[in-house]
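pasting C-8 sterol isomerase for the record, 232 residues
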Amino acid sequence: MESLKSINNLNDLYNQVVVERNPVIIGTAIFGLVFTIFILIKIRLMRCIKLDTKVLHECTKKGVGLPIDQAFEVIHKELIKHYPQFIAAKRNWLLFNGGGAMGQMCVLHASLSEYLIFYGTPLYSQGHSGRYLMDVYDFMIQGETKQFFPGYFKPINFPAGQYSYLPMMVAKGYCCERESYMLEYGRGIIPLALPYFLCSSIFVTLDIIPWLQAVYFVGWEVTKNLLFRRKI
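structre below
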């Protein structure tokens, strides 16, 4: 503790880090630097948020109760009406594996700060949500999802018309009942979530094609937003 109290200027700090290599000082400096960078990135990304969760929920509810193909069509048109610059005109579906769960997804919007997808499965599926530097909202269109957190001994149910919220750096267990579909929205540092998908493709399914397809569709949307809409 005496060495910590002796830091009164930059020369003292230099001696502690470079000369004496004090592990406490070095660790504190690294943590402070990483935390500062994270806060700056977070502030910059939050300024680029364009999608509103209330609007997304209202759009989703317009498709509840309809046949699923029709529901996707109605919700997609509503999203384009509210966000004509940011929603993809075409719907391309691809397989998704992550956290032990399998489903299919359709990328509607992707940038460095936000993503919006249709996601679901005609079969029962369950897995780990992942733990991200972003917030995730799941707006249920059809079916039901169930989830739990550590210390919960009964499932939390989210039927069609409701939505669940997963805060940043929080993980959960979840399952999708048969024929469950949702509109999923994430906001935060999106690129750091890619390994969740990539690791399952490489080490579990040994099927890299869905990941490459996702990189293409997501990369195209991110590039359009960066170059033509100046949206991070």
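The longest strand covers residues 101-110.
The chain has two domains: 2-46, 53-227.
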